[in-house]
Specification:
Number of helices: 5
Helix content: over 70%
Largest sheet: none
Structural class: mainly alpha
Oligomer: single chain
Strand content: under 5%
Distance between the termini: 23 Å
């Protein structure tokens, strides 16, 4: 399953595709019994979340903040990203057999679900109703994601 299709209609479609991908990865993690497979999934989850957060922070959030003259949704999303990054860092520092490893991944999954719900239910509808050029933004996001995919190691944070 690709992280995002180059033919995606707009920036929101790209971000929703990322949300679905990470949700699927968390589901696979929860179902897996293999410690090695769990580690591979966690590495992919961390990489996907790291890149997704970075393109949102660099490109999407500034455009949204300006288009909506927003002083609440974007700052809250940025704070949520900081919490997610801290948890990712913690997960990456733990050995997979540590009891805190699985617990931390589960908490990360819950944080991500909360963040995604807010973006998709609150931010995205307002963005769609704005005059923001979501097609141009999608192209910029795709380009930046491609650059980051090559820079960010499999273990996640750059």
């Amino acid at each position: 399953m690709p992280t995002s299709s180059p033919r995606a209609k707009d920036a929101i479609s790209l971000l929703r595709a990322d949300h679905r991908l990470v949700s699927d990865l968390f589901e696979q993690f929860e179902k897996s019994r293999s410690p090695a497979r769990k580690q591979v999934l966690v590495n992919q989850i961390c990489k996907e979340l790291t890149i997704h957060a970075q393109v949102e922070e660099e490109l999407f959030y500034p455009a949204v903040k300006q288009a909506l003259r927003d002083t609440e949704l974007v700052p809250e999303a940025r704070v949520e990203h900081e919490s997610l990054k801290q948890l990712i860092s913690k997960i990456q520092s733990l050995p997979p057999d540590d009891e805190a490893f699985k617990a931390s991944v589960i908490v990360l999954s819950e944080y991500v679900k909360h963040h995604v719900k807010e973006e998709q239910n609150e931010m995205f509808p307002k963005v769609k109703a704005s005059k923001l050029d979501l097609k141009a933004l999608a192209l910029a996001i795709l380009e930046r994601k491609h650059e980051l995919m090559e820079q960010v190691p499999e273990t996640g944070m750059a």
